From TrEMBL:
SUPFAM superfamilies registered for this protein in UniProt: RmlC-like cupins (SSF51182)
Organism for this UniProt entry: Methylomonas methanica (strain DSM 25384 / MC09)
Classification of source organism: Bacteria, Pseudomonadati, Pseudomonadota, Gammaproteobacteria, Methylococcales
The EC number(s) this enzyme carries: 2.4.2.1, 2.4.2.2
A GO term for molecular function: guanosine phosphorylase activity
Enzyme class: transferase
Summary of the function given for this chain in its UniProt record: Catalyzes the phosphorolysis of diverse nucleosides, yielding D-ribose 1-phosphate and the respective free bases. Can use uridine, adenosine, guanosine, cytidine, thymidine, inosine and xanthosine as substrates. Also catalyzes the reverse reactions.
Keyword presence, Isomerase: no
Alphabetically ordered keywords of this record: Glycosyltransferase, Transferase
Similarity remark: Belongs to the nucleoside phosphorylase PpnP family.
Reaction(s) catalysed (UniProt annotation): guanosine + phosphate = alpha-D-ribose 1-phosphate + guanine; a purine D-ribonucleoside + phosphate = a purine nucleobase + alpha-D-ribose 1-phosphate; cytidine + phosphate = cytosine + alpha-D-ribose 1-phosphate; adenosine + phosphate = alpha-D-ribose 1-phosphate + adenine
Matches recorded under Pfam families: Ppnp
InterPro entries referenced in this protein's UniProt entry, alphabetically: Ppnp, RmlC-like_jellyroll, RmlC_Cupin_sf
The protein's name in its UniProt record: Pyrimidine/purine nucleoside phosphorylase
Amino acid sequence: MSEFQNVTIVKQANVYFDGKVNSRTIMFADGTKKTLGFMQPGEYTFNTADPELMEILAGELDVQLPGCDWQTVKGGEAFNVPGNAAFTMKVKTPSDYCCSFLK
């Protein structure tokens, strides 16, 4: 899906790691939430509450999920993050993403 319809967008940006990672929150009528964001090259560790689906729309990065080896993810690929976990990404090239929060 290349676009979302009938959504509410939170105007305030989510800014992390001194502005190197930022996103906007999108709310759907059914209560689900996603963020659309952009990451500059660098290494970032995130903590999750709920499980997430991370879709990499463009760019390339390495990700280390809990208990797993590093894996490379490129534009057009995705990975799942468990809830209540930490994961690290080494962003190799500027990367565009969509994060879906799964409950």
